[in-house]
Every structure is written in structure tokens, then in C-alpha cells.
Amino acid sequence: LIEIKDLRKKYIMGEMEVEALRGVNLNISTNEFVSIMGPSGSGKSTLMNILGCLDTPSSGQYLFDSIDISSRTDDELSEIRNQKIGFIFQTFNLLPKLDALQNVELPLIYSGVEKHLRKDLAKKALKRLGLENRMNHKPNELSGGQRQRVAIARALVTNPGIILADEPTGNLDTKTGFEIMEIFKELHQEGNTIILITHEPEIAEQADRGIIIRDGLITKDALNTTI
Amino acid sequence: LIEIKDLRKKYIMGEMEVEALRGVNLNISTNEFVSIMGPSGSGKSTLMNILGCLDTPSSGQYLFDSIDISSRTDDELSEIRNQKIGFIFQTFNLLPKLDALQNVELPLIYSGVEKHLRKDLAKKALKRLGLENRMNHKPNELSGGQRQRVAIARALVTNPGIILADEPTGNLDTKTGFEIMEIFKELHQEGNTIILITHEPEIAEQADRGIIIRDGLITKDALNTTI
Ligand SMILES: Nc1ncnc2c1ncn2[C@@H]1O[C@H](COP(=O)(O)OP(=O)(O)OP(=O)(O)O)[C@@H](O)[C@H]1O
Ligand SMILES: Nc1ncnc2c1ncn2[C@@H]1O[C@H](COP(=O)(O)OP(=O)(O)OP(=O)(O)O)[C@@H](O)[C@H]1O
Ligand SMILES: [Mg+2]
Ligand SMILES: [Mg+2]
Question: Which of B142, B179, B180 to mutate to test ligand 2, by most ligand atoms within 8 A of the CB atom?
Fold first, then answer.
């Protein structure tokens, strides 16, 4: 499903260069459940943004579903993001003027779903995340963990085949964090592919495969064998 | 230092009322190290914002340093926040157009510190948080954990007597999280008061006293006796 070869990403700041990714090689098959860990600033979100077709590498190759992403148009990328990928951002990226329900409806509006059905699907997604009493709250009327859960609901509502989750439990208490992991495991059993960045080992070990990134390179890539 | 009696906070949304705090009683002395845990949406950040003089309760009393906070003017509250309290926000609240160094200098500008000294203090604070190579990066040129650390540096740079930290390690890998805790312990040994919201038990147990909040009420308040 995902084939990444010698992926590099550098940022140029005046005279300085920051190499966020320095030659990443990675293959992920359909229906895998992969966790990514690594120190702060090591390149995890940068890699995730490229996987999610939100950013382009400086060099290297990214094949998604055998499609060379670098040769796609903006419209094609937009469609891939909307139809195939559910992205949960480290900083949530909710629209401040829309309430929780409207934020979750947004991807359904883009994919042209009819009004009543999309309201139903959005409500269902929010209920699944324990937010049925917060649907009309705007982001600034929600707690940190509630905003995080709205971001998760929004990523799941279009039933995408692959879920990219960047620190999905960073603002959640342990119990709610495990409830989120239960949802990811259900989605995984339904055939979806899950890639999850986390800094919490108890979360990472619930995936089938663990990747460690340091300084823009993958330093470990192994199956979790604690079954 | 802090005396809170029957503190309540409610939000009115159309016909509905959300009771975020439902009668909180809490006394914290100078030089305590207190952790606050509880489920997502239970009222932790709401309590913290009132403690930090950023928000006012619907009813109940808050005495800070024997001063009745409800009778202070906005200017007086502003001065208390700038001089006495270092606040680390759950959502960082960095200014997007300023780089890391400028963001950390901001509280020093408000307290009238001279230009060269404040640059020195800001650089020192960022170095302590491992960010000496990121001083000229704006928030959108930083990783999630780097932004979190800029927010921490900014809270510490004025050398406040009390530090209110809302999920300070939520976006940090385990090792960096423990480095932050080492900094808090140093500050505590220097005589400062630390109040810290976290959802991670390994972080909470490093405080001397643990408080648990559920549904707007304190359900547990005990010394950590695992010494
Ligand atoms: N402006 C507001 N209007 C309405 N309800 C609000 C508002 N701000 C917060 N709330 C509600 O108050 C409750 C407490 O919020 P608070 O941010 O204190 O929770 P928290 O314990 O910090 O949660 P988390 O662990 O998720 O950060 C939540 O249920 C939230 O939805
Ligand atoms: N626009 C940018 N310009 C310059 N440097 C950048 C930019 N965006 C990210 N970086 C740098 O690239 C590196 C990798 O960032 P990235 O966000 O991928 O880290 P991360 O592993 O997700 O970290 P965290 O765990 O803290 O979220 C960081 O050192 C960061 O400072
Ligand atoms: Mg990140
Ligand atoms: Mg909170």
C-alpha cells in the first residue's frame, strides 16, 4: 500500500538547513497496524504529513497504492486525502467558527454526501467518541481532550481505508486513551490500515509493528512479539 | 498561598448549562508540588485558569497570597499573572508571528526588563529546554514537542514563584518528559510552588501530593506516600 524509498525533507532557513528526514525507507501493507515513536523533533510528523499527501518530500519516492504521489495534481491529491485517508493532526486543526458537529461533517461535505445522511454519520462518529453532549460546542467551548476526540471523529467519519493518527491520545486520560485504542483495534479488524505516532509505550505496544525514528532516520522497525 | 472555597463555574449555552466546577475546596501552601489528574472534560483546565487569574468563577472564593482575587482590578490581576505566576497552557498559546526567542522574551518585555538582559534570560531558558538550535524558528517551523517546550521556557523565564502547568509533557517522548520533570523538581527545591495537570500516572507520582477531579469535584486529595 505504501512504498517509501530514500525519502528526504529539508527546510531552508536563511543560511541554515534543517534536515527533518534524511533517507527514510519504509513499506507498509494494507491492514497493518503500525506505531511510530521517537524523540521530540525527530521527524515523525514530517513523515506523517508526507504519507498523508499534505506535504511533498525534497527528494525520494513515495508510492501510495502503486501511484507515484509526486506526479499527481493538486486535485488528485485532494481527492486521495478526502476519500482514502483519515488524518488526525497533532494540533487537531479544527475550524474555530464551526461547532463539533459541523467540524465532523466537513469531510462529508467535500465528498458530496447528502445533508441528512451526513448529519447522521457525523452524530454517530461523535457518539462513538463519547461526545454526544458536546455536539454544539465550538472548539473554544471544549476541553483539550474533547477537541482531540472531535479531531478523531472527523478522521473516521468518511470511513477511510487508512488512518494516520499523530499523537491521538496526547491530551486524554488513561481510560479515555484506551477507549480510543479500542476503536482503532476495531477499525483494524474491519480491514483498515492504521499508522499511529505516539510517545506512550503502553499505546505503541498495542500495534502489531513498531517503528522508531531518531534524527530523521528509522533506527528500528520490528514486529511486536509480545503476544 | 492558595485558598479556594466552594468554587463553581458554569457556562450557559442557549437553554443548556454546563457545570464545569461544582463546589471545589482546595488549599495549597507555598512550596508544595501538586499533581491534578482526572478524566477528559472533568474541569482540570477550568480550575487551572481560575488559579492563574485568567478566568473568574461563577461563585465561591479564591484567596491568592491572602488577596481576594474577585476584588482585584484587571490591571492588578495582570500584574499578579506577570510577576507571580508562570502558566503553561494545554494548547501552548504561542504567538505565530514571533519566533521562539521572541515568544519567550514576551513576559520579560511586560515586566520592563532591559533589552540585553531579557535576550540573555530568554536564551538561557530555551537552552535549558534543549532548544538552542531552534531559537529563530516560528511555531509553525517547530515540532509539537518543541512548541510545548517553548511554552514551558516562556513560563519559567520570569522566575515566577508559582508554576501552573497544564499537560506539560502531553506532546513529549518519555525521555524528554522526564527531563521536564527534572526541571520542575529543581524549581521545587528552589522553593517554588508547582501545580501540574497530567494524564500520565508516572508523571503524577513524581509530585508530593495528588488530586483527582471528576465531574467538576475533587474526589481525592492525598499525599503521595511511595517514598
Ligand atoms: N466556554 C465553554 N462553554 C461551554 N462549556 C465549556 C466551555 N469551556 C469548557 N467547557 C466544558 O467544561 C468542561 C470542563 O472543561 P475543562 O477544559 O476544564 O476539562 P479538562 O479536565 O481540562 O479536560 P481535558 O483533560 O480534556 O483537557 C468540559 O466538559 C467542557 O466541554
Ligand atoms: N517549516 C519548518 N522549518 C524549519 N524546520 C522545521 C519546519 N517544520 C519542522 N521543522 C523541524 O523539523 C524537525 C522535525 O519536526 P517534526 O514535526 O517532524 O518532529 P516530530 O518528531 O513530530 O516531533 P514531536 O514529537 O515533538 O511532535 C524538527 O526539529 C523541527 O524543528
Ligand atoms: Mg510531531
Ligand atoms: Mg484540559
Answer: B142
Name the average pLDDT for chain B: 95
Question: Which of the residues in chain A have pLDDT under 50?
Answer: 227
CA dihedral B152, B158, B162, B168 (to 10 degrees): 0
Torsion of CA A211, A215, A216, A222, to 10 degrees: -20
A199 and B90 within 8 Å at the Cβ level: the answer is: no
Q: Does B227 score more than 60 pLDDT?
A: no
Residue A28 and residue A37: Cα distance in Å, rounded? Answer: 16
Instruction: Name the amino acid, one letter, at B226.
Output: T
Write out the E strands in chain B: 2-13, 16-28, 33-37, 59-64, 67-68, 85-88, 162-166, 193-197, 209-214, 217-223
Q: Supply B105's cell numbers.
A: 522574551
For the beta carbon of residue A92, count every other beta carbon within 10 angstroms. Answer: 21
Question: B174-189 and B144-156 are packed helices; what angle lies between their axes, rounded to 10 degrees?
Answer: 0
B49: its cell numbers: 485558569
Q: Which residue of A has its CA nearest to B91?
A: A144
Q: What is the SS3 assignment for B121?
A: helix
For residue A2, list its beta bridge partners.
Answer: A28, A64
What's the grid cell of residue B121?
534570560
Instruction: For ligand 2, say whether the CB of B148 is within 6 Å of any of its atoms.
Output: no
**What is the 8-class DSSP label of residue A142?**
S
